[in-house]
Design a protein that fits this description.
There is one protein chain. About 35% of the residues lie in helices and about 20% in strands. It is an alpha+beta fold. It has helices at about 30-50, 105-115, 125-130, 165-175, 195-215, 225-235; strands at about 10-15, 20-25, 60-65, 65-70, 85-90, 95, 120-125, 155, 180, 185-190. The strands form two sheets. An eight-stranded mixed β-sheet has the order 6-5-4-3-7-10-9-8, sandwiched between helices. A two-stranded antiparallel ribbon has the order 1-2.
Amino acid sequence: MAEQRSEQTHAPDPGPGGQGPTPRRTRRATPEEARAWEALVTTARRTVTDGLVVGTSGNVSVRVADTVLVTPSGVPYDRLAPDDVTGVDLAGRQVLGALVPTSELPMHLAVYRSCDAGAVVHTHAVHATAVSTLVPELPLVHYMAGALGGPVRVAPYATYGTEELAENMLRALDGRSGCLLQNHGTLTHGATLDQAYDRTAQLEWMCRLWLTASSVPGHTPTLLTQAQLTRATSRLRTYGQHP
Protein backbone atom coordinates (compact mmCIF):
# COMPACT_ATOMS: atom_id res chain seq x y z
CA MET A 1 0.00 0.00 0.00
CA ALA A 2 1.26 3.46 -0.86
CA GLU A 3 2.14 5.77 1.97
CA GLN A 4 0.03 8.77 2.83
CA ARG A 5 1.07 11.54 0.43
CA SER A 6 -0.71 14.55 1.88
CA GLU A 7 1.40 16.38 4.42
CA GLN A 8 -1.07 19.12 5.31
CA THR A 9 -4.65 19.22 6.46
CA HIS A 10 -7.03 22.06 7.17
CA ALA A 11 -8.34 20.90 10.51
CA PRO A 12 -11.55 22.54 11.79
CA ASP A 13 -9.77 24.40 14.59
CA PRO A 14 -10.22 28.18 14.66
CA GLY A 15 -7.15 30.25 13.90
CA PRO A 16 -5.93 33.31 15.82
CA GLY A 17 -8.85 35.50 16.75
CA GLY A 18 -11.31 32.95 15.39
CA GLN A 19 -10.57 33.97 11.80
CA GLY A 20 -11.07 30.49 10.35
CA PRO A 21 -9.21 27.19 10.24
CA THR A 22 -5.49 27.04 10.72
CA PRO A 23 -3.59 24.66 8.39
CA ARG A 24 -2.01 21.84 10.34
CA ARG A 25 1.01 19.90 9.23
CA THR A 26 0.54 16.14 9.24
CA ARG A 27 3.16 13.50 8.78
CA ARG A 28 3.41 10.56 6.41
CA ALA A 29 1.93 7.22 7.40
CA THR A 30 4.40 4.57 8.44
CA PRO A 31 4.30 1.18 6.68
CA GLU A 32 2.62 -0.30 9.77
CA GLU A 33 -0.03 2.44 9.75
CA ALA A 34 -0.60 1.95 6.03
CA ARG A 35 -1.23 -1.77 6.59
CA ALA A 36 -3.52 -1.01 9.53
CA TRP A 37 -5.47 1.47 7.38
CA GLU A 38 -6.02 -1.18 4.74
CA ALA A 39 -7.35 -3.59 7.37
CA LEU A 40 -9.55 -0.84 8.85
CA VAL A 41 -11.13 -0.07 5.47
CA THR A 42 -11.77 -3.79 4.91
CA THR A 43 -13.52 -4.03 8.28
CA ALA A 44 -15.57 -0.87 7.67
CA ARG A 45 -16.75 -2.23 4.32
CA ARG A 46 -17.67 -5.50 6.00
CA THR A 47 -20.04 -3.69 8.37
CA VAL A 48 -21.98 -2.51 5.33
CA THR A 49 -21.87 -5.86 3.52
CA ASP A 50 -23.12 -7.67 6.63
CA GLY A 51 -25.94 -5.19 7.16
CA LEU A 52 -24.67 -3.70 10.41
CA VAL A 53 -24.66 -0.15 9.06
CA VAL A 54 -26.39 1.77 6.29
CA GLY A 55 -24.58 4.40 4.24
CA THR A 56 -21.96 6.15 6.34
CA SER A 57 -23.47 5.34 9.73
CA GLY A 58 -21.15 3.67 12.22
CA ASN A 59 -17.36 3.94 12.34
CA VAL A 60 -14.22 1.90 12.92
CA SER A 61 -10.84 2.65 14.48
CA VAL A 62 -7.57 0.84 15.14
CA ARG A 63 -4.67 1.85 17.34
CA VAL A 64 -1.05 1.76 16.16
CA ALA A 65 1.22 2.74 19.06
CA ASP A 66 -0.04 6.20 20.12
CA THR A 67 -1.88 6.90 16.86
CA VAL A 68 -5.55 6.09 16.33
CA LEU A 69 -6.60 5.51 12.73
CA VAL A 70 -10.30 6.23 12.22
CA THR A 71 -12.85 6.26 9.44
CA PRO A 72 -13.46 9.83 8.23
CA SER A 73 -16.78 11.60 8.67
CA GLY A 74 -19.42 11.17 5.96
CA VAL A 75 -17.29 9.30 3.42
CA PRO A 76 -18.76 6.07 1.96
CA TYR A 77 -16.44 3.20 2.82
CA ASP A 78 -16.27 1.96 -0.76
CA ARG A 79 -14.66 5.26 -1.75
CA LEU A 80 -11.85 5.15 0.81
CA ALA A 81 -8.41 4.82 -0.76
CA PRO A 82 -4.86 4.40 0.60
CA ASP A 83 -4.27 8.16 0.47
CA ASP A 84 -7.36 8.79 2.64
CA VAL A 85 -5.66 7.47 5.78
CA THR A 86 -6.97 9.50 8.72
CA GLY A 87 -5.34 9.48 12.15
CA VAL A 88 -5.25 11.33 15.44
CA ASP A 89 -3.17 11.15 18.59
CA LEU A 90 -4.72 10.16 21.91
CA ALA A 91 -5.56 13.79 22.61
CA GLY A 92 -7.60 13.97 19.41
CA ARG A 93 -5.14 16.10 17.43
CA GLN A 94 -5.04 15.10 13.77
CA VAL A 95 -1.65 13.74 12.76
CA LEU A 96 -2.50 11.92 9.53
CA GLY A 97 -4.58 12.93 6.53
CA ALA A 98 -6.76 15.78 5.35
CA LEU A 99 -10.23 14.30 5.93
CA VAL A 100 -12.19 15.19 9.05
CA PRO A 101 -12.27 12.21 11.47
CA THR A 102 -15.54 10.54 12.45
CA SER A 103 -17.89 12.61 14.59
CA GLU A 104 -17.83 9.78 17.14
CA LEU A 105 -14.13 10.32 17.84
CA PRO A 106 -14.82 11.06 21.55
CA MET A 107 -16.15 7.53 22.06
CA HIS A 108 -13.22 5.88 20.31
CA LEU A 109 -10.64 7.89 22.21
CA ALA A 110 -12.40 7.27 25.51
CA VAL A 111 -12.03 3.52 24.96
CA TYR A 112 -8.32 3.74 24.12
CA ARG A 113 -7.61 5.97 27.12
CA SER A 114 -9.40 3.60 29.51
CA CYS A 115 -8.04 0.20 28.44
CA ASP A 116 -5.55 -1.56 26.19
CA ALA A 117 -7.97 -2.05 23.29
CA GLY A 118 -6.43 -2.34 19.84
CA ALA A 119 -9.58 -1.66 17.81
CA VAL A 120 -13.13 -0.30 18.17
CA VAL A 121 -16.22 -0.96 16.04
CA HIS A 122 -19.37 1.15 16.30
CA THR A 123 -22.51 0.23 14.34
CA HIS A 124 -26.20 1.07 14.02
CA ALA A 125 -27.19 -2.61 13.79
CA VAL A 126 -30.98 -2.97 13.56
CA HIS A 127 -31.70 -5.64 16.19
CA ALA A 128 -29.22 -4.29 18.70
CA THR A 129 -30.57 -0.77 18.33
CA ALA A 130 -34.12 -2.08 18.76
CA VAL A 131 -33.12 -3.84 21.99
CA SER A 132 -31.47 -0.63 23.23
CA THR A 133 -34.90 1.03 23.21
CA LEU A 134 -36.57 -1.72 25.26
CA VAL A 135 -34.37 -2.74 28.19
CA PRO A 136 -31.51 -1.37 30.33
CA GLU A 137 -29.55 -4.59 29.81
CA LEU A 138 -29.71 -7.37 27.22
CA PRO A 139 -31.34 -10.34 28.96
CA LEU A 140 -29.10 -13.40 29.38
CA VAL A 141 -30.58 -15.36 26.52
CA HIS A 142 -27.28 -16.94 25.46
CA TYR A 143 -23.94 -17.84 27.01
CA MET A 144 -21.99 -15.85 24.38
CA ALA A 145 -22.61 -12.87 26.64
CA GLY A 146 -19.59 -14.28 28.44
CA ALA A 147 -17.43 -13.42 25.45
CA LEU A 148 -18.26 -9.77 26.10
CA GLY A 149 -17.51 -9.96 29.81
CA GLY A 150 -21.05 -10.52 31.08
CA PRO A 151 -24.57 -9.14 30.66
CA VAL A 152 -24.47 -6.39 28.03
CA ARG A 153 -25.56 -3.03 29.42
CA VAL A 154 -27.33 -0.18 27.64
CA ALA A 155 -25.66 3.23 27.88
CA PRO A 156 -28.24 6.01 28.46
CA TYR A 157 -29.00 8.16 25.44
CA ALA A 158 -26.92 11.25 24.70
CA THR A 159 -26.43 13.24 21.51
CA TYR A 160 -24.03 11.58 19.11
CA GLY A 161 -20.46 12.84 19.01
CA THR A 162 -20.58 14.32 22.52
CA GLU A 163 -18.42 13.78 25.58
CA GLU A 164 -21.64 12.94 27.47
CA LEU A 165 -22.22 9.96 25.19
CA ALA A 166 -18.60 8.87 25.62
CA GLU A 167 -18.96 9.01 29.41
CA ASN A 168 -22.24 7.05 29.34
CA MET A 169 -20.58 4.47 27.11
CA LEU A 170 -17.60 4.03 29.44
CA ARG A 171 -19.88 3.33 32.40
CA ALA A 172 -21.78 0.71 30.38
CA LEU A 173 -18.48 -0.83 29.26
CA ASP A 174 -17.10 -1.25 32.78
CA GLY A 175 -15.87 -4.85 32.89
CA ARG A 176 -17.22 -5.46 29.39
CA SER A 177 -15.91 -5.40 25.83
CA GLY A 178 -19.22 -4.30 24.33
CA CYS A 179 -22.34 -2.31 25.09
CA LEU A 180 -25.52 -1.02 23.53
CA LEU A 181 -26.12 2.70 23.06
CA GLN A 182 -29.74 3.67 23.75
CA ASN A 183 -31.66 4.64 20.60
CA HIS A 184 -28.35 4.60 18.74
CA GLY A 185 -26.47 1.34 18.21
CA THR A 186 -23.54 -0.73 19.47
CA LEU A 187 -19.90 -0.35 20.41
CA THR A 188 -17.39 -3.15 20.92
CA HIS A 189 -13.64 -3.25 21.30
CA GLY A 190 -10.98 -5.92 21.05
CA ALA A 191 -7.28 -6.57 20.80
CA THR A 192 -7.59 -6.66 17.01
CA LEU A 193 -9.99 -5.47 14.32
CA ASP A 194 -11.16 -9.05 13.77
CA GLN A 195 -11.92 -9.54 17.45
CA ALA A 196 -13.75 -6.23 17.77
CA TYR A 197 -15.80 -7.02 14.66
CA ASP A 198 -16.62 -10.56 15.80
CA ARG A 199 -17.88 -9.18 19.10
CA THR A 200 -20.11 -6.73 17.24
CA ALA A 201 -21.53 -9.54 15.12
CA GLN A 202 -22.14 -11.72 18.19
CA LEU A 203 -23.87 -8.86 19.99
CA GLU A 204 -26.19 -8.22 17.05
CA TRP A 205 -26.95 -11.97 16.85
CA MET A 206 -27.81 -12.17 20.57
CA CYS A 207 -30.11 -9.17 20.25
CA ARG A 208 -31.86 -10.75 17.28
CA LEU A 209 -32.19 -14.01 19.23
CA TRP A 210 -33.80 -12.30 22.23
CA LEU A 211 -36.19 -10.27 20.07
CA THR A 212 -37.21 -13.42 18.19
CA ALA A 213 -37.78 -15.50 21.33
CA SER A 214 -39.59 -12.74 23.22
CA SER A 215 -41.96 -12.10 20.32
CA VAL A 216 -43.64 -15.53 20.55
CA PRO A 217 -47.14 -14.95 22.03
CA GLY A 218 -47.80 -16.61 25.35
CA HIS A 219 -44.17 -17.52 26.00
CA THR A 220 -41.32 -15.92 27.92
CA PRO A 221 -37.72 -16.78 27.00
CA THR A 222 -35.79 -18.91 29.49
CA LEU A 223 -32.77 -16.94 30.67
CA LEU A 224 -29.44 -18.13 32.02
CA THR A 225 -28.54 -17.63 35.65
CA GLN A 226 -25.38 -15.78 36.62
CA ALA A 227 -23.89 -19.09 37.79
CA GLN A 228 -24.57 -20.70 34.41
CA LEU A 229 -23.00 -17.75 32.62
CA THR A 230 -19.95 -17.88 34.88
CA ARG A 231 -19.36 -21.54 34.07
CA ALA A 232 -19.77 -20.94 30.34
CA THR A 233 -17.45 -17.94 30.45
CA SER A 234 -14.76 -20.07 32.06
CA ARG A 235 -15.02 -22.61 29.25
CA LEU A 236 -14.94 -19.88 26.60
CA ARG A 237 -11.47 -18.86 27.77
CA THR A 238 -10.07 -22.16 26.47
CA TYR A 239 -12.25 -22.41 23.36
CA GLY A 240 -10.57 -22.75 19.97
CA GLN A 241 -6.98 -23.43 18.97
CA HIS A 242 -4.17 -22.50 21.32
CA PRO A 243 -0.43 -22.82 20.61
